[in-house]
């Protein structure tokens, strides 16, 4: 981070510092405070809603208690209790009983709430009575009570009231459902005698009227659920009566949040042990924190205005300070010694930066004059350089002389000496390479072969050399005389004293846009590979001048990612390899040296 800032100009530094130490801290602080306030708002509103749900549930329980009292009154009435002791009668008498019960029960029914009774009629003595598929309430007789969907749960309650969702009585092709309060009618004289079953249907209407306190929450969804989470009453069309509302089994009472369909809801749940029901309120969290969002938007606008003012102040600072500094930097960068600046001085000003720019322009004028005064001295330096170039003719003279000596020795019959002179001549010719710094791999291999032949003759062929040069790699360019120092090290420090057991392997390959040149020896001495690599990295001084020279020349040409490396050979000895880019022309490689 410090290095990046150090390389920036002042304008960028100002922008970065403003962002790091002003903009980001304010935004983070605003975000943290907003989240904290949002959490506090949700907690407070959740607690308030829980109290509201508890109070509303108590009201709903009182509604259930009213139905319990009314059904209790009906059960102990004389009209109902005498049914337990009426003997078999004629059809006329049964019809009179039906009329009496129907008239008695109709006194309780209203447009919304309807009272009905079911009696067992296994002998079909009341077949003249219409069934529940025709009438929406009244007295009904069933030949098989077990066929009724609600019968099992009501009979198991043993006279206690049960809330169940059932299909509406009467013509109901769409299977519209209603909530009923069901109760088994027992004899008050003999508790084991079952007289019939009382159903109070349509009770969702008074229950849903108790949801009025929730109307001020426009997006609130309120549902009364039974133990199986079946909806008994609701204020929303999204969840119909009889549908199942998924509520986690571990959620009994409290406030928690759930995400459904990308919308986060706050669930407020209360359970009543008296009626075994649950009252659930669902409301989008967004609706709860709407006031908080409004305040947050106001804060955001204030921050936007603040940042705008900060931007204007920064622009003023840039115009009055940074721009003059930037102009001075451009003047400094554009100045070349000996060339006059194409920039005129500002009028005199009290601005210190403007004064500095003017002084710099005057200084460049004086410096240019000094350069002109030294022009004659530079000409003399050029003459000296030209003389040095002339001295380079001598190696060519020596090369030509060696060629003459070679032919003279060859003609005299000293073939072996002639070959040595020829190899030495070849080494000098490739070393000169007409002034070129990069030569083809093949030329470098020829140079290395000539050197190896000289060394084989010198050491009386005490080692073997294996050449493995890939044909496609011969055309690529390499820095000249990089292979000979590595081969020399392998011979001197590896295999020179191994008699006939020493071996060298010299390989050249091209892979993935690179040329790999490796030299391996089977030297018996354990080489210090860490020290060799340390020398190549410049960590060891006053040693390894040959390989350092190779390393520096490679990296000067191709950059720091290429160069010479050393490692242990798997069997025995040392492996040295060079990695350079595979290029055919010096102009292909434009990477600056490392």
TrEMBL record:
The keyword Cytoplasm appears for this protein: no
Membrane topology summary: Multi-pass membrane protein
Record keyword ATP-binding present: yes
Gene3D superfamilies (UniProt xref): 6.10.340.10, Histidine kinase-like ATPase, C-terminal domain
Pfam families found in the cross-reference section: HATPase_c, His_kinase
Swiss-Prot/TrEMBL keywords: ATP-binding, Cell membrane, Kinase, Membrane, Nucleotide-binding, Phosphoprotein, Transferase, Transmembrane, Transmembrane helix, Two-component regulatory system
Subcellular location: Cell membrane
Name the UniProt record assigns to this protein: HAMP domain-containing protein
């Amino acid at each position: 981070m410090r290095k990046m800032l150090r390389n920036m100009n002042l304008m960028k530094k100002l922008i970065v510092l403003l962002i790091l130490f002003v903009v980001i801290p304010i935004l983070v602080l605003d975000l943290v405070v907003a989240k904290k306030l949002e959490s506090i708002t949700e907690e407070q509103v959740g607690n308030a809603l829980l109290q509201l749900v508890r109070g509303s549930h108590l009201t709903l329980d009182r509604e259930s208690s009213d139905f319990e009292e009314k059904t209790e009154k009906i059960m102990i009435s004389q009209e109902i209790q005498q049914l337990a002791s009426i003997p078999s009668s004629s059809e006329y008498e049964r019809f009179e009983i039906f009329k009496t019960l129907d008239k008695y029960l109709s006194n309780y029914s209203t447009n919304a709430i309807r009272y009905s009774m079911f009696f067992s009629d296994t002998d079909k003595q009341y077949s003249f009575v219409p069934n529940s598929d025709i009438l929406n309430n009244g007295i009904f007789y069933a030949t098989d009570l077990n066929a009724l969907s609600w019968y099992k749960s009501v009979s198991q309650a043993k006279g206690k009231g049960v809330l169940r969702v059932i299909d509406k009585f009467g013509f109901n092709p769409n299977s519209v459902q209603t909530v009923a309060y069901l109760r088994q009618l027992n004899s008050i004289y003999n508790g084991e005698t079952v007289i019939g079953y009382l159903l109070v249907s349509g009770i969702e209407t008074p229950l849903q009227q108790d949801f009025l306190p929730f109307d001020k929450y426009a997006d609130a969804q309120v549902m009364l659920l039974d133990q199986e989470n079946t909806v008994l009453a609701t204020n929303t069309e999204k969840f119909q009566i009889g549908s199942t509302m998924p509520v986690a089994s571990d959620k009994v009472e409290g406030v928690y949040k759930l995400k459904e369909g990308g919308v986060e809801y706050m669930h407020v749940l209360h359970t009543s042990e008296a009626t075994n029901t649950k009252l659930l309120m669902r409301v989008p969290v967004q609706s709860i924190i709407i006031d908080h969002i409004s305040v947050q938007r106001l804060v955001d606008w204030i921050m936007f205005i603040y940042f705008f003012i900060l931007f204007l102040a920064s622009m003023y600072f840039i115009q009055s300070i940074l721009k003059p500094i930037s102009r001075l930097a451009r003047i400094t960068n554009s100045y070349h010694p000996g060339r006059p600046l194409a920039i005129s001085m500002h009028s005199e000003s009290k601005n210190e930066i403007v004064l500095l720019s003017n002084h710099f322009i005057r200084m460049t004028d004086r410096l240019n004059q000094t350069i002109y005064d030294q022009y004659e001295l530079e000409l003399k330096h050029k003459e000296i350089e030209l003389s040095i170039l002339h001295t380079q003719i001598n190696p060519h003279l020596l090369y030509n002389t060696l060629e003459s000596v070679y032919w003279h020795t060859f003609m005299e019959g000293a073939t072996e000496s002639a070959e040595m002179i020829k190899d030495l001549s070849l080494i000098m010719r490739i070393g000169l390479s007409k002034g070129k710094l990069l030569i083809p791999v093949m030329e470098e291999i020829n140079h290395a072969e000539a050197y190896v032949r000289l060394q084989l003759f010198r050491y009386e062929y005490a080692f073997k050399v294996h050449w493995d040069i890939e044909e496609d790699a011969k055309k690529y360019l390499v820095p000249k005389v990089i292979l000979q120092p590595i081969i020399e090290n392998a011979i001197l420090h590896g295999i020179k004293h191994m008699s006939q057991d020493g071996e060298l392997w010299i390989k050249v390959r091209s892979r993935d846009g690179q040329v790999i040149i490796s030299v391996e020896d089977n030297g018996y001495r354990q080489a210090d590979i860490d020290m060799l690599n340390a020398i190549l990295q410049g960590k060891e001084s006053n040693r390894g001048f040959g390989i350092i020279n190779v390393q520096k020349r490679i990296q000067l040409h191709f950059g720091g990612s290429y160069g010479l490396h050393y490692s242990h050979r798997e069997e025995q000895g040392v492996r040295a390899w060079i990695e350079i880019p595979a290029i055919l022309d010096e102009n292909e490689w434009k990477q600056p040296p490392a």
